[in-house]
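Why this split exists: single-chain examples teach little about how molecules sit against one another. For that reason, every record in the complexes split bundles all components of an assembly together and asks for one structure covering all of them. Below is a record exactly as it appears in the raw files.
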Amino acid sequence: MRVDVAVENIQGIAIDMLNLASVNQKLGRLQEAHAYLDALLQDEAVQYGSAYLAAAATQKALLLLQQGESSDVRSWLDKAEGWCVSECRLKRAIDNARAALALHEKDYDGALHWAERAASASRGDDPLEHANAMRYMSEARLARSEFDLALRLASDTLALDKTLGLPEKIKQDLLLSARAYEGQGNAVQAKHFRERASRIVVR
Amino acid sequence: MKLNNYNQRLLNIEQRTKRFMLGALGAMLMVVLLVAYKQGYLVRSTIIYFFAPNAQGLNQGMAVKFIGFKVGSVKAVSMEPNASVRVKVALDNEYVHLIGLDAKARLIKEALVGESVVEIIPGSQQVQPVTQDSVLQYERGQDASSIAESMAAQLQPILSDIRQITSSINNPDGDIQKTLKNLTLVTGELRETVKQFTQLASSGNQKLENVHGKLDKALDSVNANLAVMDKAVPRLVDRAEATLDNVQTATSDIRRLAADSAGELPSFIHNSNALVQDSQDMLEGAKRSWPFSGWFHKPEAQALPVDGYVPPGKP
């Protein structure tokens, strides 16, 4: 990033800041992640590309959701959608973020709406966001006590996440399945799935 | 009585004579008719003529033929005032319509030995046939003598060449005689060569027999050496076992040395890593510097994908 700043490679600076924010978010250093995203979003001297701004706004919204601060999430998602124009693949992530926000607000119909939209847009094209959408759908079904549907969605999501090799999400899928089994009254299977989830070490 | 008998006898003789005379007359008449028939007097014919330069071979009564059939005969051969020969031919009327005015008469011999005949060479069918006193053109065909003369003229140069060849063969200094002499010499030399080959083969056989004897001796020697080796090999095996023992000892020494140096290996590996890192840094610096910077394709910087996933518990 220092090199890009030295030669004022604007595109490079945007990419560097987005990547540094992602890495810090993964490492749990959320304030550093916010700092990089704010530097990108609030820079008045340099005009970055709309695609980078859309990515930064989406990431900002997800970061706020992760921190449980949902007040500004919708506005950042609206900004992201405004910057996301013409063949913007980010729309699926934005829809999923809206689904997550709806779940946070216990708006399960809204969550299903946004998740189903994201799932249909990403089917066969973007497995990462498709799995996220199905997971949110499973959670929404679970919240609506539709355990069979929730279990089926969780199973499909688990299979997809295994192909992607994402331990944290696999663990989440197993826990969802366990909750669905619990809802069905199958305590044994629920226990087994919780046991399986506990064995996954997330770094 | 006697007179009556006599008269009766005379009467019989007279009657016999009459019969004889009548028979003879009839026979003569038949002969005359036959001759007339043979001479063609009884056949209606058309008289035509042709003129020949000479009368050689032309005779009265000779046959006239047309495409191999007799169609008439020569009636007269006479000399004209201009020293040409006029030949009168009588053609049977039966065949006249086949002979046109442009037909030709030719004197030919039917065989090398035989009579000459007048051959009518047919002309064009479109012209009118010959009529009484028509005149045909005449050409003399080749008779045996003229054929013989022609053949003699053609054979003359051949006979001359044969004569020259014969004289060349007989000439002692000629090419053929020289070739024969050379062939004789070559044959003699070949005979000598064959004789030398025979001697060589005989000598070769003798030498092969000598080599065979030497081979037998060599094989005997090899057998003797093998017997010596049979005795020496067990001793060599003993020595090899000792050598293997030494190798095992050396291996155990190496293992001990490795164990002794195991403590130093991590630092060595660490130093190696540092060396590799330095090398990578140097290479990276070189890749960014001119002129190497143009040699390497700079990878495009890409942003990490935005994951629309919110970790559990907090949403």
